User: Which sequence fits this backbone?
């Protein structure tokens, strides 16, 4: 990732780590005031940008303007276009599905995913830091321009289909919206947003409409240490956040929250 963008992410992420992982759980107020749509609600349901803002910890203030404008020059949108990404996505569609709507539970959906996050993950696969035997050789063939085009293309797609498993999503909703105080788990909502649309400014991924089987695998990979976004897992905020959180989740919580996000829009 370009250095200046990383700086913004670190600043934002640092605030989150401080405010959330130091266990000042922010969930109670957000839960009381937000009423995210139930799983399987139609696209574009209720919550607004205002709700998202209210749910974000006060410490996650926008980065200083000087830094933000430096970063803007390095956003995927600066270099990439959806049209070029569409043309380059044919190979990807074999697994990630038409318009990024994967139908295989083990292959993640990319439709509507944050472009900043997609670009970062493709670079992590390419460098082998995110060590996946399927994606690494594929990403190795991508140029920076390809990555930016694909990232912009996938963010512009709309996730369709998939619903929550009725047996599990209620427990997952409680965890997503309220966290688990007893085990010092912050609400997922604080970073992934009330509707699971992520936090584009910080590059936090969207989780809505994601394949639950894939989500379970990722949470287990963070917990086991198999997935991280920097070799220095104790200093890199992106790694610290999800490794710390995933380790505190029970297998049942992972199953439930994965089911819930699969139904979010
Ligand atoms: C052979 C199947 C296959 C093909 C083809 C493929 N992918 Fe993947 N992709 C996967 C799998 C499997 C994963 C999940 C890896 C893991 O478990 O960490 C993945 C993960 C990803 C992720 C991370 C998603 C997330 O939510 O973190 C991105 C981004 C991605 N692929 C983009 C692409 C792009 C762009 C292409 C085309 C250049 C592509 N993939 C081609 C199978 C594939
Ligand atoms: C403090 C902010 C924060 C909180 C709270 C948080 N996450 Fe995350 N999450 C992140 C970041 C940042 C990433 C991307 C990390 C990376 O680059 O690997 C991420 C990644 C993920 C991923 C991988 C997404 C993908 O497409 O591969 C899943 C799944 C996930 N989080 C689930 C959860 C769940 C479930 C909770 C609540 C129990 C939660 N997160 C709480 C910040 C957070």
Assistant:
């Amino acid at each position: 990732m370009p250095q200046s963008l990383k700086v913004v992410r670190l600043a934002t992420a640092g605030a989150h780590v401080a405010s959330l992982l130091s266990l000042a759980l922010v969930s109670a107020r957000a839960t009381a005031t937000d009423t995210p749509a139930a799983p399987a609600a139609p696209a574009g349901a209720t919550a607004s940008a205002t709700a998202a803002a209210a749910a974000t910890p006060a410490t996650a203030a926008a980065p200083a303007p000087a830094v933000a404008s430096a970063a803007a020059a390095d956003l995927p949108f600066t270099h990439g276009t959806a049209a070029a990404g569409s043309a380059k996505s044919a190979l990807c569609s074999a697994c990630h599905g038409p318009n990024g709507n994967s139908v295989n539970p083990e292959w993640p959906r990319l439709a509507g995913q944050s472009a900043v996050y997609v670009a970062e993950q493709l670079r992590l696969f390419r460098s082998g830091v995110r060590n996946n035997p399927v994606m690494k050789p594929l990403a190795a063939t991508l140029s920076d321009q390809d990555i930016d085009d694909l990232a912009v293309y996938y963010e512009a797609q709309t996730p369709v289909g998939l619903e929550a498993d009725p047996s599990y999503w209620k427990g997952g909703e409680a965890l997503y919206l309220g966290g688990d105080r007893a085990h010092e788990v912050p609400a997922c909502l604080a970073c992934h947003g009330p509707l699971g649309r992520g936090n584009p400014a910080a590059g936090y991924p969207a989780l809505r409409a994601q394949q639950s089987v894939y989500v379970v695998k990722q949470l287990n990979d963070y917990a086991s240490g198999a997935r991280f976004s920097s070799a220095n897992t104790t200093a890199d905020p992106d790694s610290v956040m999800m490794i710390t959180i995933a380790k505190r989740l029970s297998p049942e919580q992972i199953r439930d929250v994965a089911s819930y996000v699969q139904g979010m829009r």
